[in-house]
Amino acid sequence: MISQKTAYDIACAHQEIEKAQKLLDKVKEAVDRRKQPDIRDAFGYSQGGLQLGVPSGENSTRLYMVEWSLCVPVLTAHIGHMRAKLAALNEVARSELDCSEATHA
Fold this sequence. Notes:
Layout (H helix, E strand, L loop, with lengths): L3 H29 L17 E5 L6 E6 L1 H37 L1
Antiparallel strand pairs: 1-2
Helix pairs in contact: 1-2
């Protein structure tokens, strides 16, 4: 049986890839047309760039207005990293299944 933690980590990786891919598609489309992406915050205000930072705590730091053109390579690298993590998690799940089958055989 796959552990709850492994299953959760796999689900989170899939969700992160999906979100990043949707954002990347929007940004790429706009950048290719040399336009600013129409991405809005929770209040409906158009954003001039993305934010990058550590959201809270004593060491919180945030960059505002990260240029859209910089977002493409960052999002692409993030998706690649998450896919590699997912591949590793798939191997963990496969190992957990093999161990589970061996103990029940």
